[in-house]
């Protein structure tokens, strides 16, 4: 009898093949007192040099296979490997504590890994995997351990592993690697992103797949549903072959939507946009026919740095995205730091609850020197495209007015200096605090647009940390109470003829799509790989029918009831 397992569908597609279970040699790091400190420093320097050389090679391979955007992952990895601040910390530990190079390298890089892994934002959380990948490669070079080369695989397999690092994923040849399944990982990890680019089906977060599947055992993987099936029967195999054909047909259908307008069945135009974390992500939005960028998380410039980025450094980054998007709207969120997002070069005050404390716009309004550098850079970049500036974590109208007033101050400074900018740049705000949602009709007098950040809106509304397994059941995007806050926000924006988008995870959820259309949401910003599917489904939804559906959902009591109602509505549309 077949056995089913459920994980996270990280890259769509279906595969049936035999398992190749990867069990890498465990690295045991032991602290050792050394007398030859210079010898340990030399080992470290050699390991860094070899790591950088490896990453240069991986960058070139990825550039040929997947293009500049994905190759940039290894440029970022090289920046980690060659980071002077990290190297200096490791060297200082070797010298001051007279310890072995691998112990010092592990200790220092693990501090950075833990800092990023503890963050609430999934984008930065997944960047911890990059640090771990680079650190593992460096330590293997210190110890002289051979690094596994997956590019030599020459038969059809599904790779099974604890995790796949970005550098391992880059080596995969989809002619032979039909899929991969891992114990850990999520949709926003680089491994998942590269799997989607390579079009290799992947299911992550299976917890025990390395124990449940034997090497050489034939099994099935569905990267769309996140399902694994072991002990296959003939009927199981036939079912997966059928699913594979249906998936191929769906892909061919979705490609047709790349250059189409984002229209409902009855011709109402919406915007389907991409969320990005760096300028390198822009290419994927363009490739998937994005109408614009609904969220550019500017904090990456600060967190991937050893200093507050200068006005010029920021200007170059913002300008590159605006130029690439060729007059399509790019909404850039101002610095959203604090809470779980830390900076290695700035110490935030200790707080009992930093998530509700000195963070985001509260920090930048307090540190106007830092804020003005960013605003000036944004305004200068606005001369090269269509820009929206968005303030995060706005709770009061006074906060928004103060932040917007600072934009005007920066405009006057640039004007006096003879520097070009777009005087009509849109200035909007995130709606992620319930107080802002309830008061949306008043905020919309002053804001040019809203973008609903559902991740935090849900977290704050339900008083539940979405990263806590114990209360994760309260993370309910389609709970009627959350839907009512979203409706209030949309109605509040439209009351003053302002547009409203959504940039939280909910915007890309298929089950949320008809509800959001029915409530009148104007723009949907999501991961680039979700855009074509959303556009295809949107084309099958009549906005008037969706409005009736949304009104019914708002009268229900539980999320389960809402989902049942939506699934029935979507039955003939998926």
Descriptive terms for the model:
574 residues, alpha/beta, Glucose Oxidase, domain 1, Enzyme I, Chain A, domain 2, TIM Barrel, 3 domains, eight-stranded mixed β-sheet, 23 helices, 16 strands, globular
Number of folding domains? 3
For the biggest β-sheet, the strand order reads 1-8-7-3-4-5-6-2
Straight-line N-to-C gap: 30 Å
* Proportion of helical residues: 40-55%
The radius of gyration computed from the alpha-carbon positions, rounded to a whole number of angstroms, is 25 Å
CATH class division of the largest domain: Alpha Beta
Give the averaged pLDDT, no decimals.
Answer: 90
CATH topology of the largest domain: TIM Barrel
Fold and architecture overview:
The chain is of the alpha/beta class and about 575 residues long. It is built from 23 helices and 16 strands. The radius of gyration is 25 Å and the shape is globular. The strands form 2 sheets. Strands 1-8-7-3-4-5-6-2 form an 8-stranded mixed beta sheet. It has 3 domains: about 5-25 and about 150-235, Phosphohistidine domain (Glucose Oxidase, domain 1, 3-Layer(bba) Sandwich), CATH 3.50.30; about 35-145, PtsI, HPr-binding domain (Enzyme I, Chain A, domain 2, Orthogonal Bundle); about 270-570, Phosphoenolpyruvate-binding domains (TIM Barrel, Alpha-Beta Barrel). Helix 1 (about 35-65) packs antiparallel against helix 2, helix 1 (about 35-65) packs across helix 5 and helix 3 crosses helix 4 (about 100-115).
């Amino acid at each position: 009898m077949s056995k089913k397992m459920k994980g996270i569908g990280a890259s769509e597609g279906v595969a049936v093949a035999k398992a190749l279970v990867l069990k890498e040699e465990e690295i045991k790091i032991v602290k050792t007192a050394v007398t030859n400190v210079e010898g340990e420093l030399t080992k470290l320097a050699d390991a860094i040099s070899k790591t950088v050389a490896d990453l240069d090679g991986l960058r070139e391979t990825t550039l040929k296979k997947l293009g500049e955007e994905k190759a940039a992952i290894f440029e970022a990895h090289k920046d980690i490997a060659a980071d002077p601040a990290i190297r200096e910390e490791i060297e200082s530990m070797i010298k001051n504590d007279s310890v072995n190079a691998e112990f010092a390298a592990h200790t220092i890089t693990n501090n950075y890994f833990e800092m990023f892994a503890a963050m609430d934002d999934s984008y930065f959380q997944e960047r911890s995997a990059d640090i771990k990948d680079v650190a593992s490669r460096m330590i293997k070079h210190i110890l002289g351990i051979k690094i596994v080369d997956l590019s030599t695989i020459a038969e059809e397999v599904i790779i099974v592993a604890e995790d796949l690092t970005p550098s391992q994923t880059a080596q995969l040849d989809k002619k032979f690697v039909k899929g991969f399944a891992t114990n850990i990982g999520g949709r926003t990890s680089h491994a998942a992103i590269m799997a989607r680019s390579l079009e290799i089906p992947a299911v992550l977060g299976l917890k025990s797949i390395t124990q449940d599947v034997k090497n050489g055992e034939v099994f099935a993987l569905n990267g769309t549903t996140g399902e694994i099936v072991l002990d296959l029967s003939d009927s199981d195999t036939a079912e997966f072959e059928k699913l594979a054909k249906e998936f191929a047909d769906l892909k061919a259908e979705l490609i047709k939507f790349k250059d189409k307008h984002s229209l409902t069945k009855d011709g109402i135009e919406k915007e389907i946009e991409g969320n990005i974390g760096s300028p390198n992500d822009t290419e994927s939005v363009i490739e998937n026919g994005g109408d614009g960028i609904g969220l550019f998380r500017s904090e990456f410039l600060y967190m991937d740095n050893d200093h507050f980025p200068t006005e010029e450094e920021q200007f170059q980054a913002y300008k590159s995205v605006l130029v690439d998007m060729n007059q399509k709207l790019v909404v850039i969120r101002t610095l959203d730091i604090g809470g779980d997002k830390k900076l290695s070069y700035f110490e935030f005050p200790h707080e009992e609850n930093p998530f509700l404390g000195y963070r985001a716009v509260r920090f930048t309004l307090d540190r106007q020197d830092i804020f003005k550098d960013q605003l000036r850079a944004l305004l200068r970049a606005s001369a090269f495209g269509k820009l929206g500036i968005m303030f995060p974590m706005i709770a009061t109208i006074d906060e928004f007015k103060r932040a917007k007033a600072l934009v005007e101050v920066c405009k006057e400074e640039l004007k006096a200096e003879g520097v070009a900018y777009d005087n009509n740049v849109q200035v909007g705000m995130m709606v992620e605090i319930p107080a802002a949602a309830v008061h949306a009709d008043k905020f919309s007098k002053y804001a040019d647009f809203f973008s609903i950040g559902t991740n935090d809106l849900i977290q704050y509304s339900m008083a539940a940390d979405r990263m806590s397994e114990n209360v994760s059941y309260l993370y309910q995007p389609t709970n009627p109470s959350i839907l009512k806050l979203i409706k209030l926000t949309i109605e509040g924006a439209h009351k003053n003829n302002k547009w409203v988008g959504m940039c939280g995870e909910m915007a890309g959820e298929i089950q949320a799509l008809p509800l959001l259309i029915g409530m009148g949401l104007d723009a949907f910003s999501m991961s680039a790989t979700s855009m074509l599917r959303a556009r295809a489904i949107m084309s099958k939804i009549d906005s008037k029918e969706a409005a009736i559906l949304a009104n019914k959902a708002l009268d229900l009591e539980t999320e389960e009831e809402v989902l049942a109602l939506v699934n029935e509505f979507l039955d003939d549309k998926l």
